[in-house]
Amino acid sequence: MMVLGFDIGSRAVKLVSFYEGVFQKSLIFDTFDFYRNYCTYMEGKIFVDFEKLDIGKADRIVSTGYGRNNININGSETITEIKAHTFGAIGQTGLKEFTLLDVGGQDSKVVHIKNKRIMDMILNDKCAASCGRYLENMAKVIGLSVGEIAGYSQNPAELSSTCAVFAESELIGKISEGYTAEVLAASINYSLFKRIKPLIERFPAESVVVTGGVAANNALLEFIKAETDFKEVIVPQYPQLNGAIGCCVYALDK
Predict the structure, then answer these.
(1) Per-residue pLDDT at 220
(2) Residue 214: exposed, middle, or buried by beta-carbon count in 10 A (0-12, 13-18, 19+)?
(3) Taking Cα atoms as reference points, which of 254, 230, 252 lies closest to residue 95?
(4) What is the mean pLDDT of residues 33-45?
(5) Who wins on pLDDT, 188 or 68?
(6) What is the pTM of this model?
(7) Predicted pLDDT at 161
(8) Cα–chain-centroid distance for residue 251?
């Protein structure tokens, strides 16, 4: 049986296929490019064009993500992002009890999982200062990419603002004070961690599983290891694909 999982995010569309229960293939598209190149528009609705995707015929399709209710995928079932990421994290790690942190392009999600069940959750989709977009904007201010700032965690300077707009102004002030790019990069990463820390600490567990594109930020992982009580910080094999994988795991589990 071929199963497809779609995670239609604000910054990227992730597509994963499983065949006979085994991971087969993954594709990642810029969201704008996906809408432009792989969707058709009929009677005011948006449909995925599977001929252009050239991914084969699926027996089951499950979708999730920010755009799951905007794009019509024929024959698909939609599930919430919380459910998809929970199934994905359980499927990828094999853990039954943990705290899940997913930091996406425009929101962050923290889920408390016990005996493979969702016990509680926090979704922060109002504050831009605790998501991947914050890192992108702040990195641009100092002339670096998100990937380039990801490794810096030493000697961060204080960025006290809780608002992404004001934090950017504060960062510009630090530049004028002569701070190095390395210190500024560490400061950006630490300011993101400070906003996420109280969220993950609401759900204590042995392990915290980190997913989403921001899981590639090693500085954030180092801060979690050093300044929280979690004994393990786990990044699964495919952190950015976790939601799409979760769709497939959900389909296979039913």
Answers:
(1) 95
(2) buried
(3) 230
(4) 86
(5) 188
(6) 0.89
(7) 57
(8) 21
Helix axis angle, 218-227 relative to 181-200, nearest 10°? 50
Composition of the chain by helix, strand, coil, percent to 5: 40, 30, 30
State the Cα–Cα distance between residues 245 and 13, nearest whole angstrom.
13
Assigned token pair, 82 = 């919380």
CA 31/CA 40 separation, integer angstroms: 14
- The sheet carrying 207-211 orders its strands as 117-124, 108-114, 98-103, 207-211, 232-234
Q: Which residue is listed with tokens 């810096």?
A: 152
Residue-wise pLDDT tens digits, 166-184: 778 888 888 989 999 999 9
Q: Which pLDDT score is estimated for 165?
A: 66
CA distance 9 to 85: 12
- Whether 135 contacts 214, CB under 8 Å: yes
Per the rule left: phi > 0, alpha: psi between -120 and 50, beta: everything else, 30 is: beta
Looking up tokens 């608002």, which residue turns up?
163
